[in-house]
Amino acid sequence: MGIKGIYKELGPGKRISLSKLAADSLESANRPYRIAIDFAIWHFQTQAAQGRGDGATTAAAKHLIRLFGFPTHDAPGEGEAECALLQRHGIVDAVLSEDVDTIMFGCTKTLRNWSSEGKTSTAPTHVSLYDVEDMALGDLGLDREGMVLVALMSGGDYLPDGVPGCGVKVACEAAKAGFGKSVCRLKVSDKDGIQAWRSSLRHELQTNEKGYFRTKHKALTIPEDFPNIEVLRYYTHPIVSSESSIEAIRQTMEQKHVFHLTALREFTRENFDWDYRIGAVKFVRVLGQAMLVRDLANSQIAAQHVKRISGRRTHFSTDGTPELRLAFIPEEVVPIDLAKEVDETVNPGRTGLALNSDDEFDTPEGVPTINAPKLFDISKPDLAWVLEGLVKNSASDVFQEWQLKEQAKAVRRSPTKTKKKAGITKALKGSDMPRGSLDKYVTATKAALASNQGSSKALEPSSSLHKSLARPKATPSITLARSPSPTQPVVNQETAAVGQGESSSRGPGPSPKKKLFRARPSGSGFFEEVELDEEERNAELNTKLSRKGAAVRWSDVSIIDLTAADK
């Protein structure tokens, strides 16, 4: 239905949340957002998608709409043309339809593709908005007159074949060239004008003289009976309500219609199998949030249903429009009489032989059933996200109370500046720790400090205790290499690095003798400890290094020769 392939030329439209449209309408017009729907097409598409055949009858569907309190209107002719008429006169704000015929009938705001937008949710939240003014469809030649020409050339509901061999792209190029506006202004009696228009279109398609098309279309032939004047009049002058009845329709649409709660409960029992008490609980749970929003929009008395406000958010499902999380009691919002509902009695049957005792099939008392679903309690508070603007207007007292609580929380969460104590400054410029913060963890006594200082002064430089405690001067590292012959002396780099003048001016220090651990010739133990001066130590080292497999160790370095075993 509609014009095949036209959406590729129009584009995807603007994706927008229905909640945002409703919030903008509440703010600007102080009323809910009104949408006109061609029920015949919507009902047909719903049944085709579900694959249930005929399903519910049209009469039952209309009855359900009236039970919800939605206004209905019977169109005298084409439903989409009537919806476009209501939108042009401001009775409704937009038309919801999967076809673009609404644009062809003069609708300036069309909604389609009502579906989910998030990846984690399947609930429909967004629609594609086709705004004729914002999208500048007139500049593209795809306004009302242009869409009529596209339907005539490429095929539409009234003339599916169109011009043989003409696609939607060529038809859109012709509409952009202005042939749509000129054809809609033709009169039925103006035969010469129709012939001149046909010749002009045929000439441009063949020659592309004015560059309206991307290329010449010599193979495209315009029939002599094109355009079909009767079909053209279906598009330009559809059968709709008269201008005199528009005001009566407006008053009917703006009236507050009654919501038939009890009748709706019986409708769901008969058509949806929501029977017994469990069906009634489902009825309350499903309608709870919608009834709360409806009551807030229609009556100030509904503010008493709002028990508290527990949060605020900006979510993608509303395009960032602020929402408040309201707590409400479902049985108060959907006041049906559960006393009239009976519990379902289930008689379980058995298949097969009962080989065991009947007592073994009974569930012990007090033992919970595994994986048993938790029943929804309609007497306990439930939560719902509602537009902040609606709550602010309809439940102002609860909203102001929540604002005061939020302001008090913000004050408690804000950091407080403490006054500086006298005599306390920060230890470092970039540190938050004041000086002396660690004093409570450390105890210092002046008496012990004085005693230690006195004992240090009592030591004389020449005493042996001072020599043993004095820290030796750092000496360069000693590099030792194996001598190539027993007669080659080992070079002491420490002696070579220090001059005579420096050694003569050196103050008192540790003994020049070094400890040497050498192998015992006999007796217990492996090494014996001796003290040698520098010359004796070098001579001992040369002697040990000249022997294969010898081991020697002194206090500075240890050398073990393991090459004797390899030779």
Automatic annotation (TrEMBL):
Residues 410-423 have a biased composition (Basic residues). SMART domains: XPGI. One of its GO terms (biological process) is DNA repair. Residues 450-466, 476-495 have a biased composition (Polar residues). Signal peptide: none annotated. GO terms for molecular function: 5'-flap endonuclease activity; crossover junction DNA endonuclease activity. Residues 66-142 form the XPG-I domain. Residues 410-437, 450-525 are annotated as: Disordered. InterPro entries: 5-3_exonuclease_C_sf, GEN1_C, PIN-like_dom_sf, XPG-I_dom, XPG/Rad2, Yen1_H3TH. It comes from the Eukaryota. Transmembrane segments: none annotated. This is XPG-I domain-containing protein. It comes from Metarhizium humberi.
